[in-house]
Every structure is written in C-alpha cells, then in structure tokens.
Amino acid sequence: MLLSTDHSGSAHALDLPHVQLEADDVIVSRKIDWKKLYWHQRGTSEEKEGALENEQALFWPRGSVLLVAPTGSGKTEAALLWAACQKEADHQPPRLFYTLPYQASMNAMVRRLAETFGNEHVDLQHGRALLATDRWFMEKGEQPENATQVARRRRAMARLHYPPVRVFSPYQMLKAMYRLKGYEAQLTDYHNSLFIFDEIHAYDIERLALILRTIAYLRRHYNARFLVMSATFPQLIRDWLADALGEAPTITAAPKLFTKFQRHCLRLVEGEVLDEVNLSRVRAAALEGKSVLVACNVVDRAQMVYEILRKQLTPNGIDLVLLHGRLNSRDRLEKENIIRERTGTHRSGGAPIVLVATQAVEVSLDIDLDTIYSEPAPLEALVQRFGRVNRRGKKGIVDVHVFTIPSDEQKWVYDERLVAGTLRVLARENGRPVDESAVGLWLAEIYEGEVADEWKRRYAAVAAEFDAAIIGSLRPFQSDPDLDRQFDKMFDGVEVLPEDLWSEYARLTNEGNYIQAGELLVPISYQQLARISQARKRTSEKGERLITVDIPYNSEMGLDLSVLKVQTQENDL
User: Fold this and answer.
1) Separation of alpha carbons 320 and 133, rounded Å
2) What is the pTM of this model?
3) Spatial separation of the C-alpha atoms in residues 535 and 568, rounded to whole Å
C-alpha cells in the first residue's frame, strides 16, 4: 500500500477512484428502456419477489450469483445492473473486474464498458493490451505520438492498480496466486471487489479447477463477489461453481424468453468442412447475399478453408476475413475493426461478408451474421457460435449448420467423447428449432457416465494440488523470478517475430517506435515453438526476449505453420 501510494504520487495521480455505478447509469449508457428489461436483467431476489410492480425497482442479490440466459439477451447489461446493486453501507465496491477468455472479446468489451464508465476509468489487461490501447486511441482521432503517450501512461496507471474497471483474462488472477512479482498489490486490489465471469465453459478442466479454487479463496478471504454467466452450464460445472461461490442463487431467464429467442433451426450437414460439396454450400450462401460465419476448431483448418473460399468468392465481389490466434496484433486489430463494422448488431445493411474464424468468435463479440457452417464441437461451444447468428432474432428462424465429421486436429482442442455425445444429441434434434431452454438437459445427457467420472477425478486432483501447493503456501514477500517464465509456459505462451517482418521491426525500433514494433510479434504456444525448433525453422534469439522464426507470415493468413507438416514428411522420407 505504501509503495503504491508513493508511486501514484510520483505519477501525479488523483485520489484513487472507486467504481461509480448506479442502475440509471447502466440504463442510459446501454440505451435500454426500463420498461423493456427482461426478468433476468432485473434479477429479483427471493425476499423481494413481487416488488417488480415498480418498473424501476432492481433487487439483485447482494453477493455472488449465477446467471443463465440466452445468447444475445443482454447478459452484459444484467451483469452491470448486478454490479450497481452491490453497495454495502452506502459504499460502492472499489473495483470491477470483467473476465473473458479471448483477446478479441476483451478488446471489444473495453469499448462497451467505456460507454458506461468513461475511457479513463476502464483498462485492458492482457499480453497485447498496450498495443490494443494505442490503436484504440488512434482510431479515436489521436495523433500516433499522442496515442502512444496516452497508451503508455494508461499502462503505467494500470500497474499502480489505478483504474477502477479492468477487463482481463482469469490468468491475470492466477499470476497473483503463483506469486509473480507484485502479487501482494494484486491481491490487495481484489479485496471487496466485484468479478464478472463470462462463458466459463471455454477453459479446459485443469485450468477451470485453478480458476474456481482461486474464486473460492477470494470469496472466503477477500470478501470478493462474483457473477458467473453463460447461456449453458453443465450440471457438473454448476456443482463446482456452487462449491466455489457458496450459497449463490441462480438467476435464470424467464421460460418465455427462451421461447422468444428461438432464432435458429439446426441443420446437420454430412461430411467435413473441406469437402467440396460443403464448401459449395458456403459459396452459395454468400452468393445469395448472406453474411456467413465459418467456424473452425484449429487455425490450420481455418487457413485452408479461407484460402479455398478466397480464390472462389473474391472474383465475385465477396469480401472475406480470416480471424484466429496466430495473427500479430496489428493485423488482428484491423480485422476486428472490419468485423465490427461489417457484422456489428447495430449496423444498417451492407454488403455480405464471409468470416472464417476459430473459437475467438464464441464469446462476447456483438456481431450478427445470417448463417453459420461450423465444425463439430462440444454443445456449449456450438451454442455460443450460434449466438453470433441472428443475434437479436430480427430475421425469424434461420438455419445454423454443423458438419458431422470433425477434423483429425480437433482432438488437441476438445474431448472427442464430448464431441461425439454432442453429435448424437444433434442428430436427434436435426431439422428442429434450437430450444435453448432444453440445452441444460442435453448437456446432462452428454456429461454423464465415463466422461463425468473422469472429469471429476481430474478436477479433484488438480484442485487438491493447487490448494496444498499454491494457496497453502501463499505468503507476502515471497515472489520468485523463476516463476514468471514457468507461468508463461503454463498459460501465456510466447511471442515470436517472423523473419518476413524483421526489416520492418528493425526500422521501427531504430526510430524509437517500440509499440508499433511490438505489434508485429505473433503469439504461439511453447509446444509450437518446440515444433519449430525440431523442424530447424527457429532461427535466432535477438536480444534477451526477442525470438525470430523462419516461418511464412502475411497479414491475410497469419503465421503459416503448415510448413512444419511438410518438414515432418520430408524427415520421414
């Protein structure tokens, strides 16, 4: 506390701001009507039931809650209304943390929250936040040098834990638990704070165990309160959440709302996405004037689909965008802007577009396309993908397509048994409107037997080890520099510079444009870096941290790791 105060004074910061949020602020900033709030947005508590006769009465429970509502039904607004009602003894909570799994959704959420809290009070925290913030301010009309100065100051203030609203991934919380440098200030910042967790289904079982045990620790010892929301909660995950959150009520959207939000008709499509007959379906939809989402499970597959469709559709005047995790920050942010402008829910018409994307589109992107062709995935992931189509339900009931054959690579992303169980359920529901109120029952059918037993064992083992080794040893002033790199290997991966961009990188750094130079780095996992090394494609380490790789890169396709497969085949020969 003393160090933070000293550094904040040196930075000429004003008094540390708290979250200033009233229900009226949410209503006005989100441009919604009190009279048109859904039941789950009002969030009545049990003891106040019946009080909704007053149209402006909001009685969200004080404390942690689960929220279940259809995609596109205003869960973000509901979460902010919950936050506005968390006063204690007339004092607002000091901090609000909005947690999301993907950078694309984090970048989009910062913009949305800034409409409610103001730019100066909302901060973005992920590995490329400085770059995203710099680009954001340039879009707002700042000159490049001014945007860079503002972005750097915002990063410095974020390190002082100054902004009262932060958008980050749960891995930022885990840094505190693993005692990375500055963890004492992080944990102090979490005391009495509010956390909104969106789409917790996106994490694998081991990481979910770490996240939920951290939630339980912060709730019990730091008076932190949590709202965890999703369109779908498997009962297995509900049970773990109940343990982490204690006596947290579940607020579920009214049954009639699920009926109202029947926007999709399920169509199973035989074969896989790369089958020519299936690619022709995508082409036909685009040529009919529809905006189409093609959802792939891995980057390599998305790149292949995009390359084929680009050659076939571009001559016909159809625009395509490829979005995945192996793009550098500069190209990714430009693509996100295009997607937002061309497919945002508030746009008015416009030419059709084909968006080929990985899981980055599943969560909190306020986009609205006309139809989807998706590789098979676990049910909760598919429901989220469907939520990017006909998002507001203004197009009646539209078809959403799922292929029946997954790619071989998807086993590295999803449990094959969950995918197989999902396909069994979808086969039964094929040709029917998707009833989101029944998704819970479908999930219970999928998450049973051997799958449930194994998940319980894995969760229990990881949770017990985390409680004993990490939480049990958590003390102040015991940070370990070696843990930083270990944590990166566990969660964050590494950023590399493609050799194709080396000359531009060198020019920018020589000119002192370090933020713009940093925009050229591409995130990959440590496993992918090892594969590059084994294929003798890794070229050098320039400086202490910069790693260059001799892997093709361009702004349209991103980093092309398919060359590693060719190298492996040559080695086999």
Assistant:
1) 26
2) 0.85
3) 7
